TrEMBL record:
Transmembrane segments: none annotated. Its cofactor is Mg(2+). Keywords: Magnesium, Metal-binding, Nucleotide-binding, Nucleotidyltransferase, Transferase, tRNA processing. The keyword tRNA processing applies. GO terms for biological process: tRNA processing. PROSITE patterns: HD. It comes from Streptomyces caatingaensis. GO terms for molecular function: metal ion binding; nucleotide binding; nucleotidyltransferase activity; tRNA binding. InterPro entries: Bact_CCA-adding_enz_type3_sf (IPR050264), HD/PDEase_dom (IPR003607), HD_domain (IPR006674), HDIG_dom (IPR006675), NT_sf (IPR043519), PolA_pol_head_dom (IPR002646), PolyA_RNA-bd (IPR032828), tRNA_adenylyltransferase (IPR014065). This is RNA nucleotidyltransferase. Residues 273-395 form the HD domain.
């Protein structure tokens, strides 16, 4: 149990509640965890369930990924688990971690350690420790600095993590300055856990994050990206993103986000782009399919597109003579900025392409006005969106944040109408696979020419005809092609 000399008041009822949940969760994993604990004890070593696994057990959300800590060195860990586990991997062994799988559980077993950053280094220096207390004090937050010794199930909580868990607050085991100096990425982790767990961050931790934000510059782009993704995919990303912006961390990680806090004056009014963006993100999340549906759950591409869809506005803002503010072509500028930022954060080429495409297309619906969409416009909308069409539907709907109920309903009704038109045309024409009525080989045969750039130009012309007019009979398509070719020759 927590230390008796704790300076924080104990919410007794909440503690007993989380303890009951923990017992239930630990009983579920006991057969595997206890068996492993006995094997380490028989080999002369200690083993404890630790960190996020203990925290999640106390929160009633423990999954099948279990984290352990031990005084055994990696080579000794391998000797113990190899005859026992269903599979073993050594990807993290340089950092003292051995992974294995047993009875459907994925286990990571890490030797007691301490790690710290050199002020000029991007990689932590790892050294092994000799006690679990030494291991726990180096961890990021008190709620992650609890352990359960196995197989005895002795609860170890030297930093009052259980009470902080019950109070739903993030503190560091030592001073936040020491913790963030050891690993600056922990500042982003604070924002991520606030978003994932819906916890508050202690004031002294927020202060340290603000004062030490510049230390994040030594952390690799890949580690920052992975932490940002976890935050964005969490249940409460708005909370974590606000913390990144308010502490100045976002200025280093995603500077386009705080740049959305555009100043306005009494003569030039416009929507608060920063608040609008966070609301669009919330509304996009609400449109995601449930986790239990195929392809459901958090959608990183959609969420990134919602977060970045208006980042071109600061660069395109213009003050008009009538007092309005315009952002002409901000979607084009924003798409370019999106590609640049995501590339710097080392996202995959596919993710960069998809998110920037959604940013580029997010205003396309409004470009057609409120009139009736032609078949040609519908075909082009579907063609340009491609496999992103469903996400574009969600992003476009999410982008409506007006408080004017009549205007919001009109926009929703208009988009309902567009989706009905798409469905009808898809049924008639197979829009998802729009192709010209003549393929490349047929074009060469009709025009009696060989492969070359002229075939590509002819193909593009026939595709434009297909989008404009819909499907044509072969004779009509051949006649159109010959007419175009004659114009080219003249």
């Amino acid at each position: 149990m927590p230390n008796a000399n704790n300076s924080h008041p104990t919410p007794t009822n909440e503690l007993s509640h989380v303890q009951r949940r923990a017992v239930s969760e630990l009983l579920r994993v006991s057969p595997v965890a206890d068996d492993l604990g006995r094997r380490f004890r028989d080999a002369g070593f200690t083993l404890a369930l630790v960190g996020g696994s203990v925290r999640d057990a106390l929160l009633g959300r423990l999954g099948n990924d279990l984290d352990f800590t031990t005084d055994a060195r990696p080579d000794d860990v391998l000797k113990i688990v190899r005859p026992w586990a269903d599979a073993v991997w050594e990807v993290g062994i340089a950092f003292g971690t051995v992974g294995c799988r047993k009875a459907g559980f994925d286990l990571e077993i890490t030797t007691y350690r301490s790690e710290a950053y050199d002020r000029t280094s991007r990689k932590p220096e790892v050294s092994y420790g000799d006690s679990i207390e030494e291991d726990l004090v180096r961890r990021d937050f008190t709620v992650n600095a609890m352990a359960v010794a196995l197989p005895e199930k002795e609860f170890i909580d030297p930093h009052n993590g259980l009470e902080d868990l019950a109070a739903r607050i993030l503190r560091t085991p030592g001073t936040p300055e020491e913790s963030f100096s050891d690993d600056p990425l922990r500042m982003m982790r604070a924002a991520r856990f606030a978003a994932q767990l819906d916890f508050e961050v202690a004031p002294e931790v927020v202060t340290a994050m603000t004062e030490m934000a510049g230390r994040l510059e030594i952390v690799s782009a890949e580690r920052i990206r992975d932490e940002l993704n976890k935050l964005i995919l969490s249940d409460h990303p708005r909370k974590g993103l606000r913390l990144l912006v308010d502490t100045g961390l976002a200025a280093l990680v995603l500077p386009e986000l705080p740049a959305l806090r555009l100043e306005s004056d009494e003569h030039h009014r416009h929507k608060d782009v920063y608040e609008h963006t966070l609301t669009v993100l919330d509304q996009a999340i609400a449109l995601e399919a449930p986790r239990d549906q195929p392809g459901g759950g958090p959608d990183l591409v959609l969420r990134l597109a919602a977060l970045l869809h208006d980042i071109g506005k600061p660069k395109t803002r213009r003050f008009e003579k009538d007092g309005r503010v315009s952002f002409h072509h901000h979607e084009v500028v924003g798409a370019k900025m999106t590609r640049s930022r995501m590339t710097k954060l080392k996202y995959s080429n596919e993710q960069v392409k998809d998110v920037s495409k959604l940013v580029e297309l997010h205003l396309r619906f409004h470009g057609y006005g409120t009139g009736e969409w032609t078949d040609s416009a519908v075909r082009r909308y579907v063609r340009d969106a491609g496999h992103l069409l469903d996400r574009l539907h969600k992003l476009t709907r999410s982008d409506c944040t007006t408080r004017n109920k009549r205007k919001a309903k009109a926009l929703s009704d208009a988009y309902d109408g567009l989706e009905r038109r798409i469905a009808a045309l898809q049924e008639q024409e197979e829009l998802d696979a729009i192709r010209p009525d003549l393929d490349g080989n047929e074009i060469m045969q009709v025009l009696e020419i060989g492969p070359g750039p002229q075939v590509g130009r002819a193909y593009r012309h026939m595709l434009e005809l297909r989008l404009e007019k819909g499907p044509m009979e072969r004779d009509e398509a051949v006649a159109e092609l010959k007419r175009w070719w004659a114009d080219q020759q003249s």
